[in-house]
Design brief:
Oligomer: single chain
Structural class: alpha+beta
Number of helices: 24
Largest sheet: 6 strands, antiparallel
Distance between the termini: 52 Å
Strand content: 5-15%
Number of strands: 6
Shape: elongated
Strand order of the largest sheet: 3-2-1-6-5-4
Order of helices and strands: HHHHHHHHHHHHHHHHHHHEEHEHEHHEEH
């Protein structure tokens, strides 16, 4: 994106955030809560009064107070906010109120799924900050929880107010050649961190918290020299932990956890066992916090993906954001892909229920649905051929299908390429841009020779139990930064599920 365009994006976003009446009200409320001091009874009274002035906030704080974590030993219900503040702690209620302000202001966005992902990241980071504050030697360490909450303010606002730009940033991330700071800088003209700091300054958030969301230098962190530096380390650590917990069902054994230990362990005085305990505590508190807000925990991004999947494929597992209705994306994917997929699921389900569809007919129906509804150039199903020791294309739709089918074959023997990795990890993949160096390195030679112009594609492994039967493959000649949103992902998985049931002995 050209520099003048990025300047326009940044200016437009700041104008929306600072000029929109609802966002102005949010900023005023956030500043008011942040500035409440816990040093005397007056601060407690102000916080109680603020919470009571909002019926929904009152209900949520009381609901949180009555969860298993905080319920008193006597089992009596907490029915007053004053008691809730006493039970949960002033700073806990204060940070929870801030989190709920963000949820109320942004969760009803037209792009709710994207906003939900970023909101959960912010909430989880704040919980990490709170846990770290409990063991800190610094006075006022609880402010680290607020700083951690605001670490994700930039992505949250962009997801809500400039959703197309949010998609473009995520597409660069999936490409594997840019980190978050670089991708946001390229698209917005400033990094997410800089945006967060600018908005917080507009909202009159205290400088010590604004400075705490500044990015840390790369590499292993040294022990903090003062409270401000410690808060900055905790806020950054909280956000990285939140991202890990948001995508991993078993974070303890992941290489990301080991990297976090190496980067922050010495500075924050956390050994591997303590970090694992922190993960468990935060996950439990996160579940209860979401329930208190009537937000059910969502599936992890890669619950079905094993650690053997490279990071670049881990990021490409299908499950992106919602799309607006319309004609076609530049990639050729129809805007109404969801409706077309739904119709295909209904057809295939009816075929199976009636008993009229043979396995090959069901596969053909699924393949046609994928090909038409997603706007692919070529789509095929590739199944194991025991006699030749290969996976071979059996059916196909699209350009040059006979020629491409003949060449679409690869050995059953395991190899560290994209197709074997997808089957071994039973991971549905959406490759948005094959020109990424990391993706290109995982493409086998036969694919590069057969389909040199494939710029984006999906891979849907067919695995029953742990038996790898083959896969669906479909590609386009254009990159696909729009990705595959959750509703489409669910329908695609439903289509694949019908075939897996039919293939099960």
């Amino acid at each position: 994106m050209a520099s003048n365009e990025t300047r326009k994006v940044r200016a437009s976003l700041m104008s929306k955030v600072c000029g929109d009446e609802a966002m102005f009200a949010l900023g005023t409320s956030v500043a008011q809560v942040v500035q409440m001091a816990s040093s005397d009874d007056q601060g407690t009274h102000e916080l109680a009064y603020y919470v009571l002035s909002d019926a929904a906030l009152t209900q949520r704080i009381l609901r949180l107070s009555n969860t298993a974590t905080y319920r008193t030993a006597s089992g009596t219900n907490v029915t007053t906010i004053s008691r809730a503040i006493s039970l949960l702690g002033f700073d806990n209620v204060k940070t929870t109120a801030l989190a709920m302000l963000l949820v109320d202001a942004l969760s009803n966005s037209a792009h709710a799924q994207s906003v939900r992902v970023e909101l959960e990241g912010a909430l989880c980071a704040s919980l990490v900050g709170r846990e770290m504050a409990r063991h800190s030697p610094y006075q006022g360490a609880e402010e680290a929880s607020i700083a951690a909450l605001f670490m994700n303010l930039g992505p949250l606002l962009v997801a809500s107010h400039e959703h197309d730009r949010y998609r473009e940033i995520n597409a660069l991330l999936v490409g594997g050649e840019h980190n978050l700071a670089q991708a946001s800088q390229m698209i917005l003209g400033c990094s997410y961190d800089t945006l967060s700091q600018a908005v917080m300054a507009e909202w009159k958030i205290p400088d010590v918290i604004v400075r705490a969301v500044a990015p840390l230098p790369a590499g292993v962190q040294k022990g903090a020299a003062n409270r401000g530096e410690w808060m900055r380390q905790v806020a950054s650590f909280g956000m990285e932990v939140a991202r890990l917990l948001g995508r991993s069902a078993d974070p303890h054994r992941s290489h990301e956890a080991r990297a976090l230990q190496q980067r922050y362990g010495a500075a924050l005085n956390l050994d591997a066992e303590q970090m694992g305990a922190l993960f468990d505590t935060v996950q439990g508190e996160m579940t209860q916090l979401l329930q208190s807000m009537n937000m059910q925990p969502q599936p992890k991004l890669a619950e079905a993906v094993q650690e053997g999947l490279p990071d670049v494929l881990f990021l490409a597992t299908m499950g992106h954001d919602e799309l607006d209705a319309g004609a076609c994306h530049p990639s050729g994917k129809p805007m109404n892909a969801r409706d077309l997929l739904l119709a295909g699921v209904q057809d295939v389900t009816q075929m199976r229920a009636s008993g009229s569809g043979k396995v090959n007919e069901l596969i053909l129906a699924v393949l046609e649905t994928l090909y038409r509804s997603m706007g692919f150039r070529f789509a095929t199903v590739c199944l194991k051929d025991a006699r030749s020791g290969q996976y071979r294309a059996r059916l196909a739709f699209g350009d040059d299908q006979q020629k491409l089918m003949a060449g679409f074959a690869f050995p059953v023997a395991s190899s560290r390429d994209l197709f074997h990795l997808a089957m071994e990890n039973d991971a549905d993949l959406m490759i948005a841009d094959t020109s990424s160096v990391k993706i290109r390195d995982l493409l086998p030679e036969w694919h590069r020779a057969l389909l040199p112009d494939a710029r984006s594609f999906i891979v849907l492994p067919l695995v029953v139990g742990k038996v790898q039967l083959g896969l669906f493959y479909a590609d386009r000649k254009a990159i696909a930064p729009e990705g595959v949103p959750p509703d489409e992902t669910s329908l695609i998985k439903a289509l694949k599920g019908q075939i897996l049931v039919a293939l099960t002995p």
